[in-house]
Write a structure and sequence with these properties.
The chain folds into two domains: 90 residues, Aldehyde oxidase/xanthine dehydrogenase, molybdopterin binding domain (Aldehyde Oxidoreductase, domain 4); 143 residues, Aldehyde Oxidoreductase, domain 4 (2-Layer Sandwich). It has 264 residues and is an alpha+beta fold. Strands 1-2-3 form a three-stranded antiparallel β-sheet. It is elongated, with a radius of gyration of 26 Å.
Length: 264
């Protein structure tokens, strides 16, 4: 995401942008990427750094042309002299003009959680075996509102990852307790979803209003986590008449609910 943001502001190909990753000994403090802060905070910091670098490049071009910096525009990776169709300097040419002087810009953004959130809906299609109580999710249909999608692969990955996690704690990830002690001691007992458990997924995007991030983007995070369980539980209820409110949903709960409904 950071590379795409910087590349678009500078007007260059993303592969020409290098991310300089630093440690906590040389960087400002940040509480970390969580709560939808990645695009909201880091994205804005990268955008500000990119815009600051563009200003430096415009100033370098202005010195070369001996004009005021206000007369220099930045268009598609080039410094252009206003009112002239020929006077253009590329990023490479500007770097040569700078010589040994390093053109370095820094962008900071200090913010908490964004106040613009993702709205979504999920339809889960399930198959329930009334003899065994086993549930199989046949398909997910997810609808999410979004603004500018900066990185389509990451966007889709966040939704797919969130729904997979939601599928796990809805149907598999059961933490058993006995006399206050955890008895689920290994992944042999504590099941997590694999690629074979993930159902086909259809993602539909609804256009939303502008968000707080760079280019009006807003965070997506792993938004599918919160909607998976209620969608699956409601689908099970529609299929069997058994209402389950405790996770994870086990075959024993469904068989017990079917038996109770039979005696009503």
């Amino acid at each position: 995401m950071h590379r795409q943001v910087a590349a678009e502001i500078l007007g260059v190909a993303p592969e020409l942008v290098r991310i300089d990753v630093r440690g906590t000994d040389s960087s400002a403090y940040d509480e970390g990427v969580r709560g939808q802060r990645g695009t909201h905070v880091e994205g804005q910091a990268v955008a500000r750094a990119g815009n600051a670098l563009v200003d430096l490049l415009r100033e370098e071009a202005a010195r070369f042309w001996k004009v005021e910096a206000e007369r220099v525009e930045w268009k598609k990776g080039h410094a252009c002299l206003a009112g002239s169709k020929r006077e253009r300097l590329s990023l490479k040419q500007l770097a040569r003009l700078a010589g040994e002087c390093s053109l370095c810009a820094v962008g900071h953004c200090k913010a908490g959680r964004p106040d613009v959130h993702v709205f979504q809906a999920l339809v889960a299609e399930v198959e329930v075996n009334r003899e065994t109580g086993k549930v199989k999710v046949r398909r997910f249909r997810h609808v999410v509102d979004t603004t500018r999608i900066i990185n389509p692969i990451m966007f889709k990955g966040q939704i797919e990852g969130g729904l997979t996690q939601g599928l796990g704690f809805s149907l598999m990830e059961h933490l058993a307790l006995e006399d206050g002690q955890v008895t689920t001691l290994s992944f042999g007992d504590y099941k997590i979803p694999t690629i074979r458990d993930v159902p086909p997924l259809t993602i539909s995007v609804v256009k939303a209003r502008e968000g707080p991030g760079p280019f009006g983007a807003k965070s997506v995070a792993e938004c599918g986590i919160g909607v998976a369980a209620p969608a699956i539980a409601n689908a099970i209820y529609q299929a069997t008449g058994v209402r389950i409110v405790d996770l994870s949903i086990t075959p024993e709960q469904i068989i017990k609910g079917l038996d109770e409904n039979a005696y009503r």
